[in-house]
Design goal:
Helix content is 23%, strand content 18%. The protein has helices at residues 14-30, 38-43, 132-142; strands spanning 70-71, 74-75, 83-86, 89-92, 106-109, 112-117, 120-123. The strands form three sheets. A three-stranded antiparallel sheet has the order 3-6-7, with no helix packed on it. It has a two-stranded antiparallel sheet with strand order 1-2. The protein has a two-stranded antiparallel sheet with strand order 4-5.
Length: 146
Amino acid sequence: LAALDKLGHTNHWNEPHEAVIDVVIKGLKELGILSGDFSDLLKAEAHAPFYMHRAGHWLGMDVHDVGKYKIDGKWRNFEAGMVLTIEPGIYIAKDNMDVDKKWRGIGIRIEDDVLVTEDGYEVLTAQAPKTIEDIEALMKKATVTH
């Protein structure tokens, strides 16, 4: 939600990403995966081993559609009609000995497709399951036994 709140016409392309990084660092601290001062962790990019990509990309005729993220060296502002993904995720390598064993080898990403509108945004994937309970229920339905 923090990233979605950064999709207004006065916001630029990098602001949702910055919001995601803030949430990721705070979440990793809450879990005990990262420790230290938030500002120091942000500056050191301590999240990078667990979140190694951007918060999203343009979406159109292709999954990764074309379009500039910067114009004249400055992040592009959002405009009505733009469609993008917001897809934060956490990935912890199974061989990462810097984290507690219980966290190793896990990954989760929730992706939303979002249309920027005149007065904000519309989440095109709003009906997709996102809670643990909804995802597990969907997985049970999808399981095929032989």
